[in-house]
UniProtKB/TrEMBL annotation:
Coiled coil: none annotated. One of its GO terms (molecular function) is hydrolase activity. Residues 28-263 form the AB hydrolase-1 domain. The keyword Hydrolase applies. This is Alpha/beta hydrolase. Pfam families: Abhydrolase_6. Keywords: Hydrolase. It comes from Demequina lignilytica. SUPFAM superfamilies: alpha/beta-Hydrolases. It comes from the Bacteria.
Length: 274
């Protein structure tokens, strides 16, 4: 549910930001994962419409934002997100990020506490795998197949994309499938360099720098964040709490939509009550 959009320019990149405003309500910024886009928050936006004023940026290389020129790393994404928040100038906001967006949210909360009131980190890439392993490695067949799909999805018909999305994500609601597939067609594969050991690096320092209330959301069916990592993250950030959603993998809110939204909104209500 997107009402309008704006564009923010930083360091030569034009960043598209989708908006679903709600006057007088708290601002909630939704940061998507790698290969996704603002459009993939559509079902969440529809559920939360009227309760929050929603801001959904496309990261550079994704959706309607500029393609990648030069190098890109997590610091670039953090600075981009900060530029968006400085532009909208609503004061400290609520953040909800998934995967790459969750790490962006965590690092932004630590680096710019003036901008962030609270953060929801949905299965960020926090792990202790060596860089080659965390990137999948050159011989990882799953990563290789996904990269091949990304290169071919732009040539697919809408029907082929839908079939691909349904086959890849059989448990998802239909409303999740079209934006997931369409954002793959809009993705600049140059952004895959983020997977080359960059995401998740030095995650402990990033978490320890967070002072605002934080909810770490993960799953028990193939999520990146293990129970051990979740416990360590909670110890590093005393303001953090952890929720583990039964039956969810890495895409927690798409795997178990109602349970995830309930957990997140409960946390945000607690933040508002403090």
């Amino acid at each position: 549910m997107i009402g309008t959009e704006l564009h923010v320019t930083r360091d030569g990149a034009r960043l598209r930001v989708a908006l679903s405003p709600s006057a007088g309500r708290p601002t909630l910024v939704l940061l998507h994962g790698i290969t996704d886009g603002a459009a993939t928050w559509g079902r969440v936006a529809e559920r939360l419409a009227g309760r929050y004023s929603l801001v959904m940026p496309d990261a550079r290389g994704h959706g309607g934002s500029s393609r990648i020129t030069g190098t890109i790393d997590i610091a670039t994404l953090v600075d981009d997100a900060a530029a968006v928040l400085d532009h909208i100038a609503t004061g400290p906001v609520l953040l909800w990020g998934h995967s790459m967006g969750a790490e962006t949210a965590a690092r932004l909360a630590g680096a710019r506490p003036d901008l962030v009131r609270a953060a929801v980190l949905e299965d960020p890439p926090f792990h202790d795998a060596p860089p080659a392993e965390s990137a999948g490695g050159d011989d990882d067949p799953h990563l290789a197949a996904f990269v091949e799909l990304l290169h071919s999805v732009g040539d697919m018909t809408p029907e082929q994309r839908m079939a691909m999305a349904r086959g890849s994500n059989p448990g998802w609601h239909d409303d999740e499938l079209v934006p997931w597939a369409d954002t793959k067609a809009d993705f600049d594969t140059a952004a895959l360099t983020l997977l080359d050991g960059g995401l998740g690096r030095d995650w402990r320092a990033a978490v320890a720098a967070i002072a605002c209330p934080t909810l770490l959301v993960t799953g028990d069916a193939g999520a990146i964040v293990t129970p051990e990592v979740a416990a360590e993250a909670a110890a590093l950030a005393p303001t953090a709490r952890v929720v583990r959603i039964d039956g969810a993998g890495h895409s927690v809110h798409r795997d178990r939509f109602d349970a995830t939204v309930a957990a997140v909104t409960s946390f945000l209500r607690d933040v508002a009550a403090d």
